[in-house]
Amino acid sequence: MNPIDDLSRRTLLTGFAAFAMPAMPAAAASHSGGVRFGVRTPLPKTGLHERALLVKDLGYDGIELGPEWLDQPLDTLREAIRGTGVVVSAIVGSLQLLNPDPKLRSQAIELDRSRLRMAKDLGADCVIEVPVFGANRFTDISPVMSQREVEDQLLVAGLKQLAASAAENEVTLLLEPLTRKETHYMNLQEHGADILERAGSPRMGLLSDFYHMQMEEKDIPATLARYGKYTRYVHLADGAKRTEPGSLPFDYRPSFHELKKWNYSGWLTVESGATDEAESALQRALRYLKQQWAEA
């Protein structure tokens, strides 16, 4: 074969292959199996497109979307993210899986199915669920069943209903334990891990939030040494005032070391306040977190 013809043929095939392959979002394309860094808060009160551009400019890989964004049409959200160079790391779910009203629990299941589809369409890895906020509103039917047992069984049943949707959309549904100041129910990683075991879906995991763990866990590294295998997403903030990582500073390295033992390769997402202007706080936080992860 003529070398020039051969070169032309190979060039044509290479070009065709590049055309045929689906485009990968810029931030996703740079992900090679290591952790990625994201932001939920603090961010200026601007539009989503402007926030995403700022997140990218500061060096982060993704942005997490709370419920304040999720009533917008999917195409509007896609357009806001398009061209910014960041991806959506996660979105928030119904937050109503343990509503005492059976009708509202059923609606929460349907909303979470919708959010799992939305997450897939946005390219997000996860949907975040807090089973319930505030006080227990279920009737105590002891000795037949305690209030906690009622809630556990209802949550497991709800998660089992969502397992097929999580698998179909290839999106992870996360349970987030919170401090007792925010919920009576799931405060410890251990409790979340128990529920996940009972639900039995590989497409479900824990959101390990360092603010809540600082308030509730006696020993965070020991907790993650035992339950870090369930961790699929991480939120980060320093101390009881929930300021940006590095502001105290809180030493994340022992806990990061335990996550590394479990080969954690998910998101490290800042969800905090700011000790000064948001942009400066996020710049410092990213430098600090990258150093802490590297040294763990």
What does this structure look like?
With 296 residues, the chain is an alpha/beta fold. It has one domain (32-295): TIM Barrel. It is built from 11 helices and 8 strands. It has helices at residues 3-20, 26-29, 48-57, 74-81, 102-122, 147-169, 189-199, 210-216, 220-227, 253-261, 278-295, and strands spanning 36-41, 62-65, 87-92, 126-129, 172-175, 204-209, 231-236, 267-271. An 8-stranded parallel beta barrel has the order 1-2-3-4-5-6-7-8, surrounded by 6 helices. Helix 5 (102-122) packs parallel to helix 6 and helix 6 crosses helix 7. The radius of gyration is 21 Å and the shape is globular. The chain starts with a helix and ends with a helix. Mean pLDDT is 91; it is low at 1-32.
Per DSSP, the total helix count is: 11
The CATH architecture can be named as: Alpha-Beta Barrel
For the CA atoms, what is the radius of gyration? 21 Å
Q: Termini distance?
A: 56 Å
Strand content: 5-15%
Structural class, judged by helices and strands?
alpha/beta
The chain-level mean pLDDT equals 91
Helix content: 40-55%
CATH class membership: Alpha Beta
The counted number of beta strands is 8
Examine the coordinates and then state which fold CATH places here, giving the name of the CATH topology.
TIM Barrel
* Elements, N to C (H/E): HHEHEHEHEHEHEHHEHEH
* Strand arrangement across the biggest beta sheet: 1-2-3-4-5-6-7-8
CATH superfamily: Divalent-metal-dependent TIM barrel enzymes
Summarize the biggest pleated sheet. Answer: 8 strands, parallel, barrel
Which regions contain 5 or more consecutive residues with pLDDT less than 50? 1-32
